[in-house]
Amino acid sequence: MIFNTWDYYLLFLLPAALSFRISRPSVRPWIVVSTGCLFFVYFSYTQIGGAIGAACLAIFLWEAFISRFYKPASLFCWLGVTQTILFLVVFKYRNFLSGVIWHSPGRNPLYWRIAFLPLGISFFTFEFLHYAWDRYRDRTETGTVGEYMAFILFFPTMVAGPIKRYQDFLPKLRTISSDWALDWQRGTTRILAGLAKKFAIADVLTAYTAHLNMQDIAVAGRAVLPLWLLAYGVKIYTDFSAYSDIAIGSARLFGIAVPENFDWPYFQTNITDFWRHWHISLSSWLFDYVFIPLGGSRISVPRTYANLLVTMFISGLWHGAGFNFIVWGVLHGLMLAVHRWWRLRPGYVPSLHGYARALSWLLTFACVNLAWAFFCMDTRTALYFFRRLLLG
Amino acid sequence: MSRLSRLQHALEYLGGARDVPPAGFPFPLSNWVFWGLWWAALAAVVFVFSGQGSKFIYIDF
Prior knowledge:
With 392 residues, chain A is mainly α. Chain A has 18 helices and no strands.
């Protein structure tokens, strides 16, 4: 969807990147803004929510309009934070949260039958919140209206990141890379590699991951269950890193470098390093805008563990409106807390070699992959999966 | 640089994530014949495996 359609490349990426590069610097932000609006409307209308989905552009334009009033220590920043979270809750969590009170959709007065998610709303949320917080703390300049709108509406990263930072994006927008040949060679290679990864690995693994449901788990042999889960672990990595490759490659055609999202996460030998290398733009966002404001690790040890749990709880909830995502997030929070406790023990050896390193890698890989069960199945199915896996 | 690091570096270079090849890598960016063949190979993989119609997992988030 979107990145694996001809429309994306022929109607949007190539014309936008070409016109962006040959234009005067003062015009470039407006090319990004206009093509970003067209991109949102076109793919919302054709793929998500129809005309109502396309009209949701007005919400993000409104949020961007309000953002222009942000000043250091201003109440407008809090207004922006509140409305950004409110829009996300209404679209993403309304049925889930009201379903906690009214279990049956038929009896739920707040149930939204035609619920849909506006294109990229979860990622817009991160960028709006980051800008509001950094303006409040006076950590970023405002730039021009065109520059700010270009930051919000830059379509290669609009739908699923990588999550940008305004301070990082602004200088790259103002002074784009001048080496056309290098950018287009590397950008095209990255896009092709991403597409190959998506089609030849992630999509092929769907044949195995599709079995992760109650009926198939009930009749499957025990030995095959971990293989299906392992297939999901490989699939989600190749799928999302392929997506990030295409987004980063597309941005490169504009002459703009956006943040990396993955750096060999499955090769890491502990859970903390795993999160430093998996969905990097998200984990660094959560670190800077949730973990640190909560007090980070400069407070008492128990509070630090609590902060890790809260941060990963929010990460889980952000990933999806379901209890299974919350369980997945809390599990990772627990693993991070246990790893932190382990590191603080007297006699802890930071660098491992040989068998110890291999064992550490295996433990990390196994924990991460077992936790995916709560990411790809609802809680009941995931628990049944583990019951069958452990007890037969 | 360990053998594994060199392999990682080479794969990142072939995947477009790095601009500079690992030391001793035989195909610089200026070798258009190699890159033409590499792009054709990637495009062939995409062509052969396309049409399965699955969407990206993170689109719905």
